[in-house]
Structures are given as C-alpha cells and as structure tokens.
Amino acid sequence: MLSSYWDSVCIFLGINILLGISLYIPMVCGLISLGQGGFMAIGAYVAVMLTKAGAPFVVALVAGALVAAVAGLIVGAPALRIRGIYVMILTLGFGEIVRVFFLNFEPTGGASGLGGIPPLTELWQIVLSCVLAYLLVWRIRQLRFGRAMIAIHDDDLAAEAMGINLTRTKLMSFSLGAFIAGIAGGFYAHYALFIDANQFDFSRSAMTFLYVVLGGTVNPFGPVLGAAIVTLLPEVLRVVQDWRMTVFGTLLILIAIWRPDGILRTAGFRK
Amino acid sequence: MFIQQLANGVMLGSTYALVAIGYTLVFGVLRLLHLAHGEVFMVGAFAGLQVVLWWHFGPFVALIAGLVVAALLGMVLEVVAFRPIRKRGNSHLAPIVSTIGAGLVLQEVMTKVFGAEQTPFPSDLGKIAYDLGFIHVTGSQVFILAVAIVSMAVLHFFVTYTRYGMAMRAASENLQVAAILGVNVDNVVLVTFAVASALGGIAGVLVGLNFNAISPYMGLEMGIKGMAVMLIGGLGSIYGAMVGGLILGIVEVLSVAYLASSLRDAFAFGLMILILIVRPRGLFQVGIRAER
Question: Which of A15, B26, B159, B220 is the most buried (most CB within 10 A)?
C-alpha cells in the first residue's frame, strides 16, 4: 500500500486529471472555459447531499455530474453565439455566480461550509474514472462527434455548411465536460470531507485551465501531463518552503515562454 | 435615498471603469487577456499606502506613487511575461499561463512584505463630508470622482491626439499593418502596458481610499470584475469600459441597497451574462474580431 501522504497526492492528482479532461473536451471544439470550478462545485454539493441522505456513492456521483451537465447546457446556450475570450469571461462569470450561490444557500451550509461528509472516495475509483475519461478523449477524435468538434474548432462556418449541427455539438461537448467536472467534484468532496463555496473559486478554474494549456491542447495526453506537473510541482517545491508559489509562478512563466503551445506540441497520432 | 445610491454607484463604477480600461487597452492592441492586471492594481494600492504610511504624504502623492509603481510593474510584466511569448509565435493561451504565474508571484511577494491581513488606508479625506441637500458625499468620494474623470479625460486626449496614442489605435486596428507602416510595435505595446497599468494603479489607490482597507488578495476580485466590465463594454472599446464600469457599479450598489447584499456579485455577473445574450459583442461593438 501507498503511504497516506502519497495516497492523498495520487487522489488529488486523479481529481485534477479529471478536471483537466473536463476542460479539454469543450476545448476540442474551441470553447475554453474559465469556470470549471463552478461545475465542480455543483457536482460536489449535489453528491454530498445525496450521500448524506443515504444514497449509494455511485448514484450520488452520477446524479451530481448530471446536474452539472444540465448546468453546462444552460451556460453553453449563451456561449453559442460567441467565441474565444468572450466564452472564457462568460464562464468565469458563471463560476462566480455558482460560488456566490453556494455561499448564500443555507440548506448546504452557506458561508460556514458543509462538513461531516462520509469518506467514500478511494484511490481505485479515481484511477478507474481517469482511465475511462482518458479513453474517451483518446477515442473522441475518431468518433463522428469528435470529428465534428474538430471541424468546428478549425472553421465553424465551413463545418456548418458541411451539415454539422453546431448547436448540438457545442452544447454536447460543453455539457460532457461539465459532467466530468461534476464527477471530479463528487470525488473531491468525499475525500476532503469538508467543502465550502470558496474552494471552488476562480483560482480552481484557473488551475484547471493551466493543466490543459501547460500540457498541450492538441494531444489528449496533454491535460494528464499538465495536471501531473501542476499538482506535483508544488509538492516537490516544499523544499523552498515559504516561497513555494513564487517559484511555482516563475516556473509557469518560464514554461509558457519555453513552450507557448503546451509541452506536448504534436498530436502524437495520425489523424 | 435613490439618488444617494446612484451617486455611490458612480463612485464604485468609476474605479471599475479604470481597471477595465486597462484590460481593454491591452486586449485592443494584443488581443490577449492580461490575468495579472488585478495584481498590478493591488501593487498600486500598496505603493500608495506606503507613501502615506512612511512619509505621511497626502492622497495626491499616494496617487502618483501608485500610478508610477503600477506603470513600471506593467512594463516589467510586458517584457517578462508577454514579449518573449510574442517573439516565439502567436499563442493566445500561453500569455494567460504566464500572467497567472506572474500573479501568483506578486501575491506571494506582497503577502511576505506586507502581511496577509487587511491594512487600513489612513486618510483625512473620509472625514470631510459635504451635504448637498439631497445627497451626502465624503471628501474621498469627491476625490475619487474627480480623479477618475480627469484620468479618463487625459486618456481620451492621449489616444486621440498624441503620437503614441494614435500609434496605439493603429496597432489595435491591425498590429501587422501598423508595423509595416513604420510603427515601432514593441514600443507601442510597452506604452500600452504603462498606460493600462497606471490606470490600474490609480484605481488601486482610489479603492484603498474608499474602502479604507487593502490586502494582497484584493486584486483577484477586482480583476474578475474588470474583465466583466470589459466584456459588457465590448472587448477593446475604451468608452465601452467607461460606460460598463458605471453600469456595473450602479447595479451592484442598487442590488445591495434594495435586494440582497450577499448576492451582489451574482447580480453583477448575471447582468454581464444578460448583456452578452442580448448583445454578444458587448454594448460598444468594435470592429475587431476577438474570436480565434
């Protein structure tokens, strides 16, 4: 068995990989979210309310993720007419709305947070989910849906002219990403055992963004590598103690300059 | 009562506008999001505070200190976190990574130097009160409004009539063409960062005066609000950012006064999403294609 320290590092790594993949999927069709923390929060809160009511963990996880997926559809709708930085700031605003909502929603603890969560998350569940999610993004480029997403990313007008349903593809990809972020939220809550709204703030969404962009946006292994780097680097940097974030931030700048398109620059497979 | 709230909203909104203009200037020229701009605002506030605390200068000197330090910091950020990436291709996501990194560094350094708690911002302006019959304003509110108006007027004249202002506008129409026509793009970008950050620094000092408390983490919230205002106004539109800032400030103050104060931020971002649904490119649609 792993020591409890490495156990917890691995669990957080797995959760972050799930988050990275959740951002990667809508990114395949060009929608970049800075609000994954919001979907994660929805998944976490819904799952916790259900397990506290006695529901099995799997049911709670999936239910939380489904609610997050519905939220993804709702946020995706205004995102249909806009692209690029507009989508990023729109989703950022959504994440803040979710945070403020849970901060004030008394049935889930409001500002004082929600504690007493049963410790249900185990490492094997997370490993399994990561493998499944990775297989999904790895296969997605070969599926009809994935090819449609790539076509939209490259040129949405041309894609539409070729008969691709822009609305459905964009909404589906956004919603699928939200679903996976919701799963990550459920796992997170049942491992952290205490959640409050501020754990799912903009910093969380920004970190999720880092996983994908740092790892590389064209290779499905990018978000996994990026999540590993961003999760493990601060652990390694414990030697520098108090200046951890300074060194980490400096490294981020250097990596961005070294590999502006992410560490994995090629797709790594034949299209 | 309503007019009083409106006046308070305008005060708050003018600081939002100053921050948002910074975002929109950088966006206009480079089409990039500058995620460390909130931290520039925070550093500007601390610079102003130090001048007041150490040398007991008044708010005007604090303002100049905030302006100068923020402008210098902005130029450093451009040279460190933007220029090297620009020289190596045209990635629009990498600068977001590097500015998140720069933001983390600035936050931790400021926390180490000044402590994580909120620091009060001493000022005598808050004690002066003017009674205009129908509204009450404090000295700091008059100061904030005056400074915001003067800054925006100076900015207007700068971009309209000066050599560098015109170069900035040319660059924001099309950076490549501006370069071909002999505009020194690197200098223009540097000036853009200096101007954008100076306005952010001014806003930092003004917010410090208004709320009488600053902390190393104040940049995050202001940064997010600034981006929302930029979006409301339309990416790259200076005047849109001014109007958007006022709208957001007024909506926030009114929602605190008449609705639920704890849901203030939800109203602010809800308004942003609403405007985005009605006008997908913001209130002041500019000719630039923000999408990639």
Answer: B26
Rounded to whole angstroms, how far apart are CA atoms A200 and B224?
A: 15
ipTM score of the complex? 0.85
Going by pLDDT thresholds of 50, 70 and 90, the confidence category of residue A180 is very high
Judged by a CB distance cut-off of 8 A, whether residue A214 touches chain B is yes
SS3 of A173-242: HHHHHHHHHHHHHHHHHHHHCCECHHHHCHHHHHHHHHHHHHHCCCCCCHHHHHHHHHHHHHHHHHHHHH
Report the candidate in A192, A54, A65, A49 with the shortest Cα–Cα distance to residue A119.
A192
Among A153, A155, A202, A245, pick the best mutation site for testing chain B contact (most B Cβ within 10 A): A245
Query: Hey, are the CB atoms on A90 and B281 less than 8 Å from each other?
Result: no
Query: What pTM does this model have?
Result: 0.88
Residue B173: inside a domain: yes
- Beta carbons of B95 and A261 less than 8 Å apart: no
Domain assignment of residue B105, given as a range: 13-219
pLDDT at A72: 93
Does residue B287 lie within any of the structural domains? no
What mean pLDDT value characterizes chain A? Answer: 88
At residue B135, the pLDDT reads 73
Higher pLDDT, A250 or A265: A250
Number of domains into which chain B is organized: 1
Structure-model confidence comparison of residues B67 and B178, the more confident one: B67
Name, in order, each residue with C-beta under 8 angstroms of B214's C-beta and a sequence gap of 6 or more: B42, B45, B46, B49, B118, B119, B121, B204, B207, B208
User: Is B103's CB within 8 Å of A261's CB?
Assistant: no
Structure tokens of A208? 């999720």
Q: Is residue B284 part of a domain?
A: no
Q: How many CA atoms lie within 13 A of A237 on its CB side?
A: 16
Ranking A20-29, A190-199, B253-262 by mean pLDDT, the lowest is B253-262
